[in-house]
Every structure is written in C-alpha cells, then in structure tokens.
Fold this protein.
Amino acid sequence: MVIRVKTARKKVFEHKAPARIVAVLGGRLSEEGQLLDQQMNSALSNYLKKKRFSGQFGEYALFAVNDGEVVLFDLGKRRGHTLDQLRAVGVKLAEIAAGLASRDIVVENFLADRFGKESASYALAEGLFLGAYSFDKYKNEVKVIRRNFVIAHGHGPAVERARVVMDGVYLARDLVNEPPNILNPVELARRAQAMAEEAGLEIRVFGPEKIQELGMGAYWAVAKGSDNEPRFIEIVYRPKEAVDGHIALVGKGLTFDTGGYSLKPPKSMITMKGDMAGAAAVIGAMKVIAELKPPLEVRAYIAAAENMISGHAYRVDDVLKAYNGKTIEVLNTDAEGRLTLADALAYASEKKPEALVELSTLTGSCVVALGAQIAGLFSEEESLAREVARAAAEAGEKVWQLPMEPAYKKLLKSDIADIKNVGERAGGAIQAALFLSEFVNVPFVHLDIAGPGFAEEKKDNPDGPAGGTGFGVRTLVRWIERRV
Ligand code: BES
Ligand code: ZN
Ligand code: ZN
C-alpha cells in the first residue's frame, strides 16, 4: 500500500523515522493524533488548546519530534466533507511533504469512517499522486528523489487503482510539459508507440504520404508548413473476449501552434506546446484502459502536426478538401485545430463507433467563457452529454455544458466552399464545436480543454503544479468504466 512517487527534493533528509500526518476534525485530534500526543507530552493538544487553528480547512502545523516530524492537518468542520475535498487534502499533503525532512510519510486514512475505507483511500491516494508530480528533467540544480507515502489502515486495491489511473495522468502531463523542440509529431508518435508496446495495445502510425493518399486534405494543409512531418496515430484496445461495437476517442495533437500566417502575437504563443493536451489525455487514458481491461473495444485517433510558417505553409483564402469530401475555406490559419480534427473525426466516424469523445485545446473563446479550470462540453446528443458530464463530476474534473446553437451554423457559411473555418468572434467556442460536428456522424461529445489542459500558473491548477495538468484522463477512464 505504499505510494511511491518521484518528486522534487527541497530538503535534505535528516530523519530516519517516517513523518506522521494526523488530522484535526472539528477542532479535535483524531485517535491516532491522541496516541501521538501522549508520546509528545501533549504538544499537539496544547497547540490546539491555544486555538492556533482558525478552523479553516487545509491549515497545518509542523512539529519536530526526536528523530521525526509530525504534521497536524486541519480538516475543518466535523461534517459536510466531500470526496473532492479529500482528494484536495491529498494534493495539499503532497505539497507539504515536499518540505519535510523524511523520506517516508505515514498519512492517516482520513474520513474513512465517513466515506468507507475504499473510497477514502482512493481519493486520498489520487490527491497524493496528483500533488507529488513534478517535471524537472531539464533542471540541473533540482534533485529528484523517491518518496514513500503510506496510508495507515488504507485499502490496498484502491491505492493500486489510483496508481494505475495516475500513471496515465503522469504520462499525459509529461507529454504536455515536454518542450516542442523535443516533442514534435514524430516524437509524439514514438512515445505513443512505446506506451502501446509496453501496454500490449495495437497501434498504427501514418506519415505524410499515407495522410495525403487517404485524402485528409484539411489535416495535411495544416501539417505541410512544418519541416517536422505529421503523424496520424491510431491506437486500439481490444478486450480479451471479442465484442460487437466500439467507442472512439479523438485528441487534438498540435505539438506547437504558432498560428501560421495568421500569426499569434508573442504572448499568446507562449504555452502553445500544450496544444496537444487533448492527444496527451487520450494517450494517457489508453494506457490506463490497457491496465484496467474493460470488456469494451476502444479506438483512439490523433492527427499530430505542427502549425508553422514556411514556403510550404497553407494560407488564408485556401480551399481545402476534407476526408469526408467537404470543402473548407480557410479564413484564419490559427483555427487549425478544427481542420486537423475534421479529418480525424471523419476517419474515426467511418468505423461507426457507438460514441465518440473528442478533447481539444480548441478556442481562446472557451477560456474567456469558463476560465482556466473548466472545460466546455458540447454535444447534440443529450444522453451522451450527461454521461460524460457525470463521469467528469465523479472523476473530479470540471466541465460545463455550452449550447450547440443551430442558429449559429449560418455563421460558418462560405461564399466559395461548403464551410469556412471561422465565423465571428462572439460565440467562438460554439462555432468551433458546430464546425467539428460537420465531420462526425455518430453520437459525439466535444470537450474544449483550452483552459484546463495547461496551467500557466500554479493557481490555475488545483490538482498540482503549473504546466500540463493531464486533464481528461480521469474523465475518460471513468466514462469508459461506466459504459461497461
Ligand atoms: N490552440 C488555440 C486555442 C487556445 C487558446 C488553446 C488559448 C489554449 C489557450 C487554437 O488553435 C486557436 O488559435 N484558436 C483561435 C481560433 C480563432 C482564430 C477563431 C482562438 O481561439 O483565438
Ligand atoms: Zn491556433
Ligand atoms: Zn491550436
């Protein structure tokens, strides 16, 4: 039941004995806290008597004992806790732990009597993993260390499950955080391949010739401006016992988005390595699915490309022909995600999945509407929308449904082609969703993760550090489990 993490080292280890983390609930010490208190000459209870905690959730105090440390963590009021809060406790504890001088840390199974041992262990373990993540491979000064958390009297299988899901989240975060000079489309495909081989998944990867031969003219137009070749990636999970039908996942995989000739201004271009966060979530989720082995077939599709400027790059005024035959007038080369997705969605639709969920860092407009922490959810299929929204809520990821207003479809009418790739500024996220829906003919949910896919600052990510968040992995896994 040990939760092993590799994390940034902030302090040298001075202590052999594990640090202990005990709860204060409604101003009172937990049972374990009381036992410790006796060994500590009432240092903990004396502290509480002086009312140094304001009773606010998340406060803590650090005590040094002989050869170890004790953290008193305030869970706030006696009642009214949620599993989301317990996950947040785990995140916070992992962050506190970074400053401890102990390698091993024993955490109480907080609120196990409230939620049951299994659910409580799962939420806490998830939080510990989420909060302990760090991406330091390019920092010479930072020492990465192994740290072990133990949930005292925890639920072993729940902790193990959390590890499996978090492996997928860590992979997604790593892929997003990797700089774009390293992680280009070719490298993204390589990493997907490495994951698939290790996990025992089928994978197919197409290069420029095959992409053009298949008639993916919208995707190719975006990709052809870069010296880094595109890669179309298809990953398949098949359950041991053959089943009828399958579900499909699609992720936007722009390993960098300069905007193309509709060039982004300098400040907006920063963080655009994260424009493959949808692809990362899909790859992370497939890794988890390979381990959990649900009795249902899952196919994942990523049209990976880099949106660059060159003599080969596409321009505004170009007319493209998508995989499904529809023609598209380009009015803004920065609306490239929907072009790559048009072909990935049409291709995925061809195999007639029972449902298709697509994730993309698609529009700044969605960030304006919902902020950094909430994804936009779009669907014309109300029951599927509810399924995915519910999975997200259970997984602790925030989504909010926005309308696919049919009246706005006419904003995408083109004078020269079947459709144009941008309409007007107001309602941009909705128009983007409507554009995508022209290339799908199966039940379909679009998640615009432009906000929560990448945290510009720590404050934008309640579940860990700045950078890639792994948003979507938990929702996808939960959704797939629920469909079984
Ligand atoms: N990758 C961006 C969207 C984005 C913006 C993601 C901010 C993450 C944070 C996308 O390709 C884009 O540039 N969209 C344009 C669309 C517009 C030209 C219609 C946008 O949102 O401005
Ligand atoms: Zn763009
Ligand atoms: Zn983009």
